[in-house]
Amino acid sequence: MTTYTVAFSGERLDRIAKKTLQTEHQGAVEALLGANPELADLAASGFVPGGTLITIPITFKPAPTVAQVLAWE
Fold this sequence. Notes:
Layout: E1 2-5, H1 13-21, H2 28-35, H3 39-42, E2 53-56
Antiparallel strand pairs: 1-2
């Protein structure tokens, strides 16, 4: 596993997921929270404090997207 250090105070968890996992969707934020159980408490205000060390899961695979077909298509 690799790590990411939050460079400045007030970085959002979804932005960290976008930087490190290339997406903030498809379970990326949940994967970060699963690899870092204490992160939920740290980011309770919506922002991760500067200097926080985050473990990045290398086995992350985005959840499959569901194709939607609209009735008029």
